[in-house]
Amino acid sequence: MSDTDGRRWHDMGGQPAGPVVPEDHDFALWEKRVDALMVLCGRKGLFNVHGLRRALEDMGEDAFETMSYYERWIAATNQNLIETGVYTIAELAERMDEIATRGPSYGEAQTGAKDG
Amino acid sequence: MPHDHHDHQHGPSPSGHPYRADNDGPLTYWQRMEIAVRELLVEKGHMTAAEISAQIDAMDERSPARGAAVVARAWSDPDFRAQLLEDASAAVRGFGLDIGPLNLIAVENTDRVHNLVVCTLCSCYPRDLLGLPPDWYKTRAYRSRAVFEPRKVLREFGVELPADTTVRVHDSTADMRYVVVPARPPGTEGMTEEALARLVTRDAMIGTGLAKRP
User: What is the CATH code of the structural domain delimited by A29-109?
Assistant: First the structure.
């Protein structure tokens, strides 16, 4: 959506949209972990909810349409942690590559995790 | 509506949401990122695996039952009700609930006024009181439409309000969350707080539903 009306994509109040389908689901373990990481990062002062919000809003509408809620949250958390200098992009890339070799599923990829 | 749940799981999970079966699907890019971020945070000493587990457990314990207990107290105790409507954060903390740094405003439904809560900008929600927000609360449809055609949205939840009821829509922010105190249903005189709390649904505290009748 263009910004010509002075609004950014996430400012959706009052826009036309389809029917509300009142459904929901429980969260997967990896999603609960993303939520917990964000809360703990906030509690420990690494970044706060506004840092998360800024990164989410800057992702733009494509991310909203193509990524799930907690996919956007882990991307925003990661961006804040790299900006804060907690780790580097290179460290992240190296670790993600190594995780890909551990196994084909989320559960199997925990095996070999260095924190047990 | 429940969907995608395992055959061996029945009913909602402890958090009140139906189960979702995707822990054993193919490992995704974003799941790899979560694992990597978590491991790096732990290895660099910012947090421990035990803290992460404890935070997940704490969040799992937060369910609409917490909010329902607060509403039942407000229905039963006029002084508490007054305090809740005056300063909800203080009242809820005084009730003994840990809501962290949450800034909370309670809005009361009456026979003349119906309140509805939304977060048009994202997904802000009184999570310390009600648990994590349902999927529909985070959808474009709800966020966009709740503020300009709330009656139509309420109809999609099966709620039809009298034409002369005033509808107030409250738009949450990261710093300010709302909870609805639903109207106490008729026929509940003399009921205990515990029994009253069972009438208070999550949707009733968002405003997309009404309290159940006994």
Answer: 1.10.472.20
